[in-house]
Amino acid sequence: MLSQVVELIESKRRFAITSHIRPDGDSLGSSLGLYWLLRALDKDVEVIMRDPVPHAYQQLPGAHNVRVTPVVDPTYHAVFVIECSDITRPGLVDLDKQLVVNIDHHSTTALFGTINWIDSTASAVGEMIYNLCKATGVRVTKEIAECVYTALITDTGSFHYSNTTERTFKVASELVRTGVKPAKTAEAVFASYPWSRIELMGAVLSTAKRDDTGRVACLRLSMEMQHNANASDEDADGFVNYPLTVGEVEAVALLKECEPGMYRTSLRSKGDVNVAKVAEQFGGGGHRNAAGCTLRGNWDETETLIVRLLQEAVSHARRLREITEDTLRTESAA
Ligand SMILES: [Mn+2]
Predict the structure, then answer these.
(1) Separation of 325 CA from ligand 1 center, angstroms?
(2) How much distance in Å is there from the Cα of 276 to the middle of ligand 1?
(3) How far is the CA of 132 from the centre of ligand 1 (A)?
(4) I need a surface site. Which of 48, 54, 144, 173 has the fewest CB within 10 A?
(5) Are residues 186 and 209 in the same domain?
(6) What does the pLDDT read at residue 334?
(7) Quick one: 23 and 51 in the same domain?
(8) How many domains does the chain have?
(9) What average pLDDT score do residues 271-275 get?
């Protein structure tokens, strides 16, 4: 919990920070935000990642200091692991030999750390890093603010998703007061794509299909499409959200072929439709409205299966809604 993290920071001095493979806005924004926080306390600290910083986040303060390595150096007092579901997610050899501090806002995380600070009410780990500034008495500098703000806008979909709360806006407001320029940061993050993304988007969106109800949609991304577009893995980030921009669509799956017969599957939904429950059936996890898992089989049978499970999730949410409405009607009639 938070008090243990504060105590550890106060009592030790040599730290590393890491996050999952293919780091995103929250993992990098939070890691670098924590980096600047620890620097402000005169600690020895470095950010280590297995994968390089994607283009969209290279403007973050400290991004050029991220050390890309597949192995953890054995001389740290503790390693902070940011938003990882388990200890293998950073993809770092010998991480399990370190004193690990697990910091996450996903309630599905395994409690793999010696210290586990999990806050599922936080919109992003970035929000937790902001709270850590307050708890350690570190002033929120412009560097910290830019890192945390990037974490917030990426994990909340620019304040669109259901994890956006009053507190998210309060934190964002203070970050802007500290000197963050929202338009400039948004442009750096969201208008930095290569053309290969447009080509890949065309191929992926051409596979879009809806079920008979119009409430469940599915997209495919094959290895061949990725190869033809000369696209990187991160080029497809966010594609899964496009079908949700259609009013009736309540749940979406994007099947990404990572080897023949194996699909890294992203699930998204609106409102009460719980896709984390669907992902968990296949050893995956996430939030109610955003989750992921790995599926195996041929394209058609895998798509049929996931569409059926999403249809069930949509019907389940509808039934719950009807029961609640009935109860409310009965209560108001009584
Ligand atoms: Mn996150």
Answers:
(1) 33
(2) 15
(3) 16
(4) 173
(5) no
(6) 64
(7) yes
(8) 2
(9) 95
